[in-house]
Structures are given as structure tokens and as C-alpha cells.
Design a protein that fits this description.
197 residues, globular, mainly alpha, two-stranded antiparallel sheet
Length: 197
Amino acid sequence: MGVGYPEDLVVSVALGADMFDCVWPTRTAHKSRKEKLTPHQRFGNAITSAGNLNLRHAAFASDFRPIEATCSCPCCRPEAPDGGDGGGLGITRAYIHHVAAKETVGAHLLTMHNVHHLLGLMRRIRAAIVEDRYPAFLREFFAQRYENQMEKVPRWAVTALREVGVDLVAGGEGEDGDEGGEGIAQEVERLGVEDAR
């Protein structure tokens, strides 16, 4: 289906889609020798809440922070102090920078992080829908992803979300004055959609 960018996912859910399949989270980490990708698309890219990081860039050579500080994936999670269970690998941006251009292990580690990140995003989306706060979630998502510079949000996303009563730019309410029209949870109930839990 090819819908895999974080912006695509959150907007598509607002428009009613509930199933996605895309190679992008792994392809942005990997690069096949047969593919002709631009330097920005070549492997070494990590998906984060604030956008994508091209960890092959020299700026990351001495960056010893995790890929994303708030991420709980095995790569970002620090090692357990006592060496016991529950710890992660404690992978740093500098390590990924070092191995991404030379060894496939960098791409494998980024694939683990990227897939974990998108699964976490989908869990947060589901929680926001169940709690009937999806319009607020959308505004928070785009504000974080675009560092509160809402004018940088892609026009297609702004337009599509307005069609379902969510105004990102104005922080707005739906035409009837509520948080985006009829709540998503009520709409699911009205349509008789079964809970997928």
C-alpha cells in the first residue's frame, strides 16, 4: 500500500484508514546496491518524533546520545547497570554513524529502531482514538514534528485534516465548535465497528 511516513499514517487514520503496509521504515535504514536513491534517502536514516535523522552525516560522528532519548526500543534503551535483563543495547548516534557506511549492522539496528518507533506511534494513535482526543493528538504530533512551526506542515496534510474538521493551523475546532466535529469513538460506535482489542 505504500503508506508509511509518520505524517501519512496520522492523516490516513483521521481519514478512516486502519491498515498499512510499507517498506519505508526499513528502506530508509537500508540501501540496496541496486537502488538509485538520493543521498538523503540512503541508509542511515532514523525516524524520530522530531523528524528523520540522517546518522551518516558527519555531525553525528561524536554524538553519544541515543538515537532518540525518549525511545524504549532495544537500540535506544541503555544497558542494564548490573548487566541483567531489561536493559537495551545502549546504541549511540556516533556508533550508528560509524557502522552505517561500512557494515550492514547499522542498517539492521536502525530497522529495529524505526519499526519500534512506528509501532509506538500506532499505539499512541489508538489510545488517542479510544480516549476521544484524536484531534488534539494530531495538533500535538504536528507541533512536535515541525517544532511548532505549523506553516511547515505539508499543505496536503492541512487540507486533508480540514476535510474531517481538524484545523492544524488555527489550532482550530470543527465547524460546530467542538474538537473536530463528532468524536472518532462516537463515530466508530455509530457505524457499529467492532473493537479490535
